[in-house]
C-alpha cells in the first residue's frame, strides 16, 4: 500500500514539475506548443492613425526616424514579458497546487486569463492549456519512473 502512495506521489510531482516547465517554455518560445506550435501575435507598435510609435516623426525631441524612449525599451523585448526579465510579471506568477489527485495550474494575476483566452481588443496569447506535447512528455517520464521503481 505504501508503494502505491509513493507511486501516486511521484506521478503528481512529475505532472507538477513538467507542467510548470512547459508553461515557462511557452514564454521562452513566445508561443503555445499544442497540436502544432502557435506563435503569439506581435505587440501593436502603431497608433490609431497607423503611425509608428517607436520612432520620432519630427526633430523637436530627437532626429526623425530615431527610436523614441518607448522604442528603445520595446526593441527586442519578448512578448508578455517586462522590460527586464525579473520581477512580478505574468511569467513569474504561474503556480501549481495539488487538490487530492489533481494538479491545478493558476496565476494570481488578473490579466492572465485575458491573455490566455484573448478578447476583442487583445489577441489570444495562450501559454497554458491542454497539449498533446505535454501529455506525451508526462507519460514518458512517469513510465521511466515506474520502470526504475519496479527494477529495484
Short description:
The chain is of the alpha+beta class and 152 residues long. The protein contains four helices and four strands; from the N terminus they run αββαββαα. Helix content is 39%, strand content 12%.
What labels would you give this structure?
4 helices; two-stranded antiparallel ribbon; alpha+beta; 2 domains; single chain; elongated; 4 strands; 152 residues
Detailed description of the structure:
The chain is an alpha+beta fold and 152 residues long. It has two domains: 2-42 and 79-151, no CATH class; 43-77, no CATH class. It contains four helices and four strands. The chain has helices at residues 2-29, 69-74, 112-117, 132-151; strands at residues 31-33, 37-39, 94-99, 102-107. The strands form two sheets. The protein has a two-stranded antiparallel sheet with strand order 1-2. It has a two-stranded antiparallel ribbon with strand order 3-4. Helix 1 (2-29) packs antiparallel against helix 4 (132-151). The protein is elongated and about 75 Å long.
Amino acid at each position: 500500500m505504501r508503494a502505491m502512495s509513493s507511486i501516486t506521489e511521484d506521478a503528481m510531482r512529475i505532472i507538477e514539475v513538467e507542467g510548470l516547465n512547459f508553461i515557462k517554455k511557452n514564454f521562452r518560445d513566445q508561443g503555445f506548443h499544442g497540436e502544432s506550435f502557435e506563435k503569439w501575435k506581435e505587440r501593436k507598435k502603431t497608433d490609431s492613425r497607423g503611425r509608428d510609435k517607436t520612432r520620432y516623426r519630427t526633430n523637436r525631441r530627437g532626429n526623425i526616424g530615431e527610436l523614441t524612449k518607448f522604442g528603445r525599451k520595446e526593441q527586442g523585448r519578448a512578448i508578455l514579458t517586462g522590460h527586464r526579465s525579473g520581477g512580478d510579471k505574468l511569467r513569474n506568477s504561474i503556480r501549481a497546487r495539488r487538490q487530492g489527485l489533481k494538479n491545478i495550474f493558476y496565476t494570481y494575476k488578473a490579466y492572465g486569463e485575458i491573455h490566455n483566452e484573448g478578447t476583442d481588443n487583445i489577441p489570444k496569447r495562450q501559454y497554458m492549456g491542454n497539449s498533446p506535447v505535454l501529455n506525451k512528455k508526462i507519460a514518458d517520464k512517469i513510465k521511466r519512473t515506474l520502470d526504475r521503481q519496479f527494477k529495484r
